[in-house]
Design goal:
It is built from nine helices and eight strands. With 274 residues, the protein is of the alpha+beta class. The two termini are 37 Å apart.
Length: 274
């Protein structure tokens, strides 16, 4: 058993949400990320340029098209080594630690391929299953690896800078009006980052061709269960029914081995707000 009264173990004080830990500071300095950390903390978003070589970006784009048959897809981490290299990008990991703390977890490795006139998504915050007011310390960091670059005509992400400080979901009028919105515009190979509080959507794509993006999200360590019942979940659910299924994470839309149940998308979001 762990002796939690052991006085030789040092417990750290909680740092302010915009602070860089002493352990992370030399890495942030080496990678030249101080301004990115400042912008992410203040405005809820930032862009990492030159995070990887052109060859790597080209390979990432090519692999996304191949493994998803040009349609985009989910649960890509094991589909090709290029995805592991992307989620382990050093600058990206440094920003994830700054935003969601040491010991953070990979939540998703997915991809989208947007074509001309593809429908967009409405204004929202990625803390969809966090009731308002959102925590002062961010819970989730989204990273969009822009394989083709972002332009407004090309269907770039639309953001409302500073909306992260409101710490709530946009209401219906804010969703329809989208006041203060700007596009994230960046070159191919850049990584657009935003925290779970930031309101964002995307512009319709009016250009021919495709916009290929690798979506990577990281969450705080506390977002995982303490115990892993995945090996015995099926038997427990068979014996105890739907309430056990809920306790073990089978009654929401989140991604399982066979994908996501998008029919449960709205109910999953709504359950987190009650």
């Amino acid at each position: 058993m762990i002796n939690i009264s052991d006085t030789s173990v040092r417990y750290y004080e909680t740092l302010p949400s915009d602070a860089i830990s002493p352990e992370l500071e030399p890495i942030i300095a080496e990678l030249g990320l101080h301004e990115n950390c400042k912008q992410l903390a203040e405005e809820g978003w930032t862009v990492l340029e030159n995070a990887a070589s052109k060859d790597f970006n080209d390979q990432l784009r090519k692999t996304i098209i191949q493994v998803t048959e040009g349609q985009g897809g989910f649960m890509l981490l094991s589909k090709d080594p290029v995805f592991a290299e992307a989620v382990l990008n050093r600058s990206l990991l440094a920003m994830a630690e700054f935003s969601v703390g040491r010991g953070f977890l990979l939540s998703q490795a997915a991809a989208t391929v947007r074509k001309k006139d593809d429908p967009g998504i409405t204004l929202h915050a990625d803390h969809n299953w966090v009731p308002a007011p959102f925590p002062n310390h961010n819970m989730l960091l989204t990273a969009c690896w822009a394989c083709d670059g972002y332009t407004q005509d090309g269907g770039a992400t639309l953001i409302v800078p500073g909306s992260n400080r409101l710490r709530r979901h946009p209401n219906e009028s804010e969703i329809s009006e989208i006041k203060g919105a700007i596009p994230i515009e960046c070159p191919p190979g850049a990584i657009a980052l935003w925290d779970g509080n930031l309101w964002h959507a995307n512009y319709p794509r009016s250009l021919d061709g495709e916009r290929v993006v690798c979506h990577i999200t990281y969450t705080r360590l506390m977002c995982r269960p303490v115990e892993d019942y995945s090996q015995c979940a099926d038997n427990l659910i068979k014996e105890h029914g739907i309430l056990m299924s809920q306790l073990l994470g089978r009654e929401d839309m989140l991604f399982k081995q066979d994908g996501a149940d998008l029919s449960k998308l709205v109910s999953t979001f709504n359950n987190a707000k009650r």
